[in-house]
């Protein structure tokens, strides 16, 4: 019997990655991405960030073509396609399903005033109780900006969609979306279990702007004749899964159940946990969306914490404080010579813009407790890593207040999770076990497609071949020292929290 495959596509702001996964073994047989240099982001004004949706499609075609070539796989043996994508973007298409204007992507901030005004006018009770978030700078608020500032474009809009919806449209010729996607755009009412009609009425949106809603896991559409000719795929190949990058990252790490956490720690850091009840933070310090396995009958919400000052702080320490020319592994060795708690030095890592966990305050990075006689570079290197961990734990306490019992953290073995100091501190302070895996977003999207197509009976079967690389458990003997350092760090943070 010929091998069967699953194709995963991951649409990021820098590139589109394709991965081909063998159904039976779960192994990635080929993977590639385009463009090879970071994709351009247009910023015609300060705070703007736009991309041409057609660029995502062109890079998808190149990635798919290269993967088919490298794997020598028969396209007829690709049984399902899954899509992961950059969250919160806005794509507007006309009646011919052509993009009307460039996509307003996740990091564009022009819509902030529109979201804030809606929050004030509609009230926190509705916005947080029904939408679980402020409209903020999310997709609905971006559409409100288009309506007011580009009325001619707004009048031409037939459907609005997220970046992943657009890629599925290009593959199939059919426009549709998911509840998970609508929730990330703050366009889903969790109490009414429908499109957020009250918000749409407030903004003056026609509900018909929303495409048909399809399940996250199911045959959502199939590859069209035109797309088959352009990609080398076979007409009729089903598209069976779609999710934003953070919910998909959680899926990629086999995070489906309450109390499980998916985390990344690159330039910025993300902690994404699963909650089994409708809950929200009244101060808006974390965001809540429908997770990939959320249904009307089974509540599964993804609570998203983002820490801007993560790997960027570690990189700054390397450039400006660490001995010149050394790498991160050597930095970790230097830091390991310092005791837990960095001998009283604490670093607040919030030096990369406003932090949502601090109610959008921009407090900057600060260093506390330095003694010029006894402290040196090694103390600062360790304190930076500990400070990043403490900021994660600070946000995780908010998740616990929402009712989340955090017992396990899943992450890829990459970036800050390569550091023993970082991961031992995180496990010991949080009390959670950390499991490190070998996966990425496009591979996760492929596995998600396998679930949606029925190639796997459930997520347990889909992820039974996921490679677990390492397990880190709390250091109970030294946990008091870790917690003492964390308490000292929180005392320093109190100076900045108003």
Summarize the structure.
This protein is an alpha+beta fold and 498 residues long.
Outline the structure in words.
By secondary structure, the protein is α+β, with helices and mostly antiparallel strands. It has helices spanning 53-71, 112-122, 124-131, 139-149, 151-156, 163-172, 179-184, 197-203, 225-231, 245-252, 311-320, 328-336, 377-401, 420-430, 441-452, 459-462, 479-493, and strands at residues 5-11, 16-22, 28-34, 50-51, 78-85, 91-93, 103-104, 159-161, 176-177, 188-189, 194-195, 212-213, 217-222, 238-244, 260-265, 269-275, 287-290, 301-307, 346-350, 364-368, 408-412, 433-437, 468-472. The protein has a seven-stranded mixed β-sheet. The protein has a six-stranded mixed β-sheet with strand order 3-2-1-5-14-13, with helices on both faces. A hairpin with a 3-residue loop joins β15 (260-265) and β16. The model has no long low-confidence stretch (mean pLDDT 96).
Percentage of residues in strands: 15-25%
Total E-strand runs: 23
Q: Give average pLDDT, whole number.
A: 96
Largest sheet: 7 strands, mixed
Coarse morphology: globular
Question: Helicity level, as a percent range?
Answer: 25-40%
Nearest-angstrom radius of gyration?
Answer: 23 Å
Instruction: Provide the low-confidence segments as ranges.
Output: none
SS field, number of helical segments:
17
Please give the alpha-carbon distance between the first and last residues.
64 Å
Order of strands across the main sheet: 17-18-16-15-21-22-23
Structural class: alpha+beta
């Amino acid at each position: 019997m010929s091998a069967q495959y699953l194709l995963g596509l991951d649409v990021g702001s820098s590139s589109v990655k394709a991965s081909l996964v063998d159904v039976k073994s779960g192994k990635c047989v080929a993977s590639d991405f385009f463009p090879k240099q970071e994709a351009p982001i247009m910023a015609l004004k300060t705070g703007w960030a736009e991309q041409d949706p057609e660029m995502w499609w062109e890079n998808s075609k190149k990635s798919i073509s290269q993967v088919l070539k490298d794997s020598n796989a028969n396209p007829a043996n690709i049984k399902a396609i899954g899509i992961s994508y950059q969250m919160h973007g806005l794509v507007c298409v006309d009646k011919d399903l052509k993009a009307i204007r460039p996509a307003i992507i996740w990091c564009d901030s022009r819509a902030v005033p529109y979201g804030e005004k809606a929050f004030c006018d509609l009230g926190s009770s509705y916005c947080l109780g029904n939408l679980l978030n402020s409209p903020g700078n999310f997709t609905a608020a971006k559409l409100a900006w288009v309506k007011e500032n580009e009325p001619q474009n707004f009048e031409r809009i037939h459907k609005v969609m997220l970046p992943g919806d657009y890629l599925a449209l290009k593959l199939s010729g059919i426009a549709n979306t998911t509840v998970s996607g609508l929730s990330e755009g703050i366009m889903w009412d969790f109490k009414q279990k429908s499109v957020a009609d009250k918000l749409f009425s407030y903004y003056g949106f026609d509900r018909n702007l929303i495409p048909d809603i399809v399940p996250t896991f199911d045959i959502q559409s199939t590859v069209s004749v035109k797309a088959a000719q352009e990609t080398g795929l076979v007409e009729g190949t089903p598209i069976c899964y779609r999710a934003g990058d953070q919910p998909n990252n959680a899926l990629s790490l086999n995070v489906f159940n309450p109390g499980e956490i998916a985390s990344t720690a690159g330039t910025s850091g993300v902690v994404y946990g699963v909650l089994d009840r409708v809950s929200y933070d009244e101060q808006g310090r974390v965001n809540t969306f429908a997770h990939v396995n959320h249904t009307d009958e089974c509540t599964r919400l993804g609570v998203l914490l983002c820490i801007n000052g993560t790997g960027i702080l570690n990189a700054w320490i390397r450039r400006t404080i660490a001995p010149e020319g050394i790498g991160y592994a050597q930095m970790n060795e230097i830091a390991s010579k310092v005791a837990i708690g960095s001998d009283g030095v604490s670093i607040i890592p919030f030096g990369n813009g406003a932090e949502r966990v601090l109610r959008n305050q921009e407090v900057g990075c600060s260093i506390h407790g330095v003694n010029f006689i006894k402290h040196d570079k090694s103390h600062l290197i360790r304190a930076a890593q500990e400070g990043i961990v403490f900021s994660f734990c600070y946000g995780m306490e908010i998740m616990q207040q929402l009712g989340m019992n955090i017992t396990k953290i899943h992450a890829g073995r990459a970036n800050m999770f390569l550091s023993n100091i970082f991961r031992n501190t995180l496990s010991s302070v949080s009390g959670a076990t950390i499991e490190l895996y070998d996966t990425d977003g496009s591979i996760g999207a492929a596995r998600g497609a396998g679930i949606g197509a029925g190639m796997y009976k459930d997520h347990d079967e889909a992820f039974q071949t996921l490679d677990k690389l390492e397990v880190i458990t709390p250091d109970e003997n030294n946990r008091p020292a870790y917690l003492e350092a964390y308490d000292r760090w929180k005392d320093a943070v109190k100076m900045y929290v108003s």
